[in-house]
Amino acid sequence: MTADIATTDTSELDEMQNTYKAVEEWIAAIKHEEALATVNHSVAEVDKWEETHFEEDAIRGKVKTAKKQYDDALREKFFGF
Q1: Exposed, middle or buried by CB within 10 Å (0-12, 13-18, 19+), for 53?
Q2: Where in the sequence is the domain holding 70, given as residue range(s)?
Q3: How many domains does the chain have?
Q4: pTM of the full predicted structure?
Q5: Is 71 within a domain?
Q6: CB of 66 within 8 A of CB of 19?
């Protein structure tokens, strides 16, 4: 069984892994949101902060979806379910 795993084409898994690595984009979005949370207390600045929260949340969703797809593919490859 180990030989099968070693010789199997992993390009699809590689692609899923690279997609999940978008977690760096998520980290950047969190840091951007955090930076705006410490600025002046004006309506305009609070609006910018809120907008970055929505951007961070969208990226978070993308990363979580990519992680689930990668996890599921690994389970299928190694455990058959």
Answers
A1: middle
A2: 24-79
A3: 1
A4: 0.73
A5: yes
A6: yes
